[in-house]
Specification:
The chain is of the alpha+beta class and about 325 residues long. It has two domains: about 70 residues, Immunoglobulins (Immunoglobulin-like, Sandwich); about 190 residues, Beta Barrel (Cyclophilin), CATH 2.40.100.10. Helix content is about 25%, strand content about 30%. It has an eight-stranded antiparallel beta sheet, with helices on one face. Strand 3 and strand 4 form a beta hairpin.
């Protein structure tokens, strides 16, 4: 009896001891896990943000718009700088580089009172062909000038260098067709410039009136049978959508034929094919189609003159 009681007491004690040991081990394990969690949380909260971004791999020839891919870690705020000047505080940054050169892009990644900065050099190459930036009161447009029309290229270049177009208004706007500028009479400041009244046409069968075509205005055939171009006035084609049947009919009426490539381009972007063979195209819009659409959609009077002036602020060469 005594032996049995001793055995029972010993069994109870052993079971109790096992329970205590298991509980103790469990608590130590939980405390250890909690401690590791606190340490990791502290390390994470104290860690500096990591600034990182990638430069697009596309061809960097001016003019070009680049969007920089933000790959920063543990950051809450960002500051983008271009040559040390703050240009954006958004996560993603895009910039249109107008001129060639070397530029330093930096991204500062911020969290709390901590920050790190990543800097990279961007090299923008000069364009092989002549490009100009036209700044207007409704935005900027960039054009590539054709080397096939040397007379118009030299004349337009000389006018730009003289500042002739600065301050002039688009005096004729027809939505879905074109916008026209370059009239000296629209200048507010009565400054005098030397310019030719007309220059010989350079109508080229390979340069068509696609949307965005930059062409020389002129007087009608009745008083200008030589189709001579205006020495200063130009127009930019907005145009309308085109179909193959209509294009072929138009070409037949003018006694020429469009290539498949030309047909495809007209169908893709539209234009004003009725002007082909009649006016000199000497350039094309390469960026800023939304600005052209803004200008062409302004309200006009019965003579197609905008009710509110849309002016050319400046035209610059892209180098």
């Amino acid at each position: 009896m005594i032996s049995l009681l001793f055995q029972n007491v010993t069994y109870v004690q052993v079971r109790h001891l096992e329970t205590v040991m298991i509980y103790s081990f469990s608590m130590k394990f939980r405390v250890k896990r909690f401690s590791i969690y606190i340490i990791c949380l502290t390390m994470f909260s104290c860690a500096r943000p990591i600034a990182e971004f990638a430069i697009p791999a596309s061809s960097n020839t001016a003019p070009v718009e680049l969007t920089f891919d933000n790959r920063s870690e543990q950051a809450e705020d960002y500051i983008w700088r271009l040559d040390e000047k703050v240009v954006s505080r958004e996560s993603i940054y895009s910039h249109q580089f107008i001129n060639s050169g070397r530029y330093i892009i930096s991204l500062e990644a911020i969290k709390g009172g901590k920050s790190t900065t990543k800097k990279q050099e961007v090299i923008i190459n000069a364009p092989e062909k002549c490009h100009v930036l036209m700044e207007t009161s409704l935005g900027n447009m960039t054009f590539e000038l054709s080397e096939k029309t040397q007379g118009h290229l030299k004349n337009f270049t000389a006018l730009i260098e003289s500042g002739y177009y600065n301050g002039l208004a688009f005096h004729r706007v027809i939505d879905g067709f074109m916008v026209q500028g370059g009239n000296d009479n629209t200048r507010k400041e009565k400054k005098k410039y030397d310019y030719p009244a007309t220059i010989p046409h350079e109508i080229d069968p390979t340069l068509h009136h696609y949307q965005g075509a930059l062409a020389a205005a002129r007087m009608p055939d009745s008083v200008n049978p030589e189709k001579a171009s205006s020495g200063t006035q130009f127009y930019i084609v907005e145009g309308t959508a085109q179909k193959t049947k209509g294009l072929n009919k138009m070409a037949a009426s003018k006694l020429f034929t469009y290539t498949q490539e030309q047909l495809d381009k007209y169908i893709e972007i539209g234009g004003a094919p009725q002007l082909d063979g009649e006016y000199t195209v000497f350039g094309y819009l390469v960026s800023g189609i939304h600005v052209l659409e803004k200008i062409s959609s302004v309200e006009t009077d019965k003579t197609d003159k905008p009710n509110e002036d849309v002016r050319i602020i400046d035209i610059k060469f892209i180098q």
